[in-house]
Amino acid sequence: MLAESTPYVEKEIEINPWLSAAARFDEAAERLGLDEGLRKVLRMPTMELTVHIPVQLDDGRLEVFTGYRVQHSLARGPAKGGIRFAPDVTLDEVRALASWMTWKCAVVNIPFGGGKGGVICNPDVMSMSELERMTRRYTAEIIEFIGPERDVPAPDMNTNAQTMAWIMDTYSMHKRHTVTGVVTGKPLELGGSRGRPEATGRGCLIVTMQALRRFGLDPANTRVVVQGFGNVGGMAAKLMARAGFKIVCVIEWDGAVYNPHGINPEALMKHREETGSINGYPEAEPIDPHEALLIDCDVLLPAAKENVITTANADRVKAKIICEGANGPTTSEADAILADKKVFVLPDILANAGGVTVSYFEWVQDRQGYFWNEQLVNGRLEEIMVSSFKDVVGYAEKHNVNNRIAAYMLAIDRVANAIKMRGIYA
Ligand code: NAD
Question: What is the pLDDT of residue 87?
């Protein structure tokens, strides 16, 4: 049975993230002619850790939560990747996300491998002190496996700068000195980086701008549909509107709003702050959220969750460009449909890599103990995103493959070369 919250898919198997990640890896490895042994090394994570975390709840009861930390590859540097707290976290999901982090870091050519973590819990029903105790105990359970030189977690779904501060503090207490570089996405006061909250959305803007040039579009004539008005989608919409784009539709979990003349994202954010929802925004019409993904537009920016463009709707997508702000918004089976329609896809491992790129800057600044101004952060982010876009699109043209497979091929080639140069320790 499919959950009611996944109305975009017809087949359960299509939405298994680990199968999706493996399908793309296999296709890219095949096209690269990757050595069979290296395929085996790169297909599976280096390390998978499962921990059972006892936590005293506020009412005195003892609960045990299950958590994971997966390191997919350490070939190019420490593992890097977020920690999510959610009731439906699975080891398969964490594995897939860890492998995506390996490829993402390689696409933007930063010296990290890939990792991911998760704890099965429902943060909506937990108090701050329960979340703090769970986070600290989870950190203590995985402490031997993380560290600035080893594995550097970051926020993901339902974790934030406060969670990172607790992890940093717990790690530092065990080490008996302050170690800011153990996590990224920290508050500015504790070694966070300027520009980090905007980084993923800014990266989406930068690569979309590059794609527009190829279509001879200019921002003023570009209609954008944004799904997910959170950190990534809200920030991308705000920055795109400031750059002159027309945000014609915003889709949230509880509704969607449409205005063909453009929506002011900052006014919509204010409306949501005041009312708790984007619904009822007076400067736009309500529209069915599932149909909204399929309206005529130039850029579709899925920035909410995985598996929203699937075999059930891909053939009806009208966007010329899809900028994948979310991780895994398109299933591997839908890729082929979009490729046939010649939709220009900016794949997640490129499009949303602005976040991990500025996380890399944060790690560098923590290790130097010297902090950059926002202009420097944004300038260096732009440089990396533009050159990564060119690398991926150039690779796609050279090898006659779509952008996603090109991004995977480029990334797999970089990681495989690192392994070849290092050799296999025996
Ligand atoms: P977020 O929680 O800040 O925002 C997500 C938004 O999507 C929320 O406003 C939520 O209400 C909305 N949403 C949830 N379900 C929806 C649905 N069915 N339809 C429409 N909207 C829905 O999260 P975020 O940090 O913006 O992350 C979004 C995606 O981007 C995730 O896939 C995440 O893994 C990915 N991502 C985030 C970052 C980052 O730096 N935050 C970096 C890379 C990738």
Answer: 97
CA distance 143 to 253: 36
Is-catalytic flag, 116?
yes
Burial class (CB in 10 A: 0-12, 13-18, 19+), 120: middle
Average pLDDT value for the chain: 95
Handedness of CA 408, 413, 414, 416 (dihedral sign): positive
Ligand 1 centroid to residue 305 C-alpha, Å: 6
**Which residue among 231, 357, 358 has the greatest number of ligand 1 atoms within 8 angstroms of its CB, and so is best to mutate?**
231
- Identify which of 300, 305, 385 to mutate to test ligand 1's pocket (most ligand atoms within 8 A of the CB): 305
- Among 404, 316, 398, which residue's Cα sits nearest to residue 104? 404
Q: Report which ligand 1 atom has the smallest distance to the Cα of 251.
A: 20
CA 424 to chain centre: 30
Residue 6 has pLDDT above 70, yes or no: no
DSSP states along 143-155: GGG-BTTTEEEEE
């793309």: which residue's tokens?
Answer: 24
- What six digits make up the tokens of 312? 């059930």
CB 117 within 8 A of CB 47: no
> pTM here?
0.95
| DSSP letters spanning 256-282 | EEE-TT---HHHHHHHHHHHSSSTT-T
What is the number of alpha carbons within 13 Å of residue 209 lying toward its C-beta? 17
The gap from C-alpha 314 to its chain's centroid, in whole angstroms, comes to 21
Three-point CA angle 167, 168, 173, nearest 5°: 100
pLDDT, tens digit (0-9, with 9 covering 90-100), for 104-136: 999 999 999 999 999 999 999 999 999 999 999
Instruction: For residue 10, name the pLDDT band (cuts at 50, 70, 90).
Output: low
pLDDT higher than threshold 80 for residue 11:
no
- Give start and end residues of each alpha helix (H) in 118-187: 128-142, 161-175
SS3 state of residue 29: helix
DSSP track, 307-364: S-B-TTTGGG---SEEE--SSS-B-HHHHHHHHHTT-EEE-HHHHTTHHHHHHHHHHH
Q: CA separation (Å) from 321 to 49, 224, 273, 348?
A: 38, 9, 30, 13
Q: Is residue 95 within 8 Å of 45, Cβ to Cβ?
A: yes
Distances (CA, A) of 22 to 110, 118, 242, 355: 23, 20, 38, 24
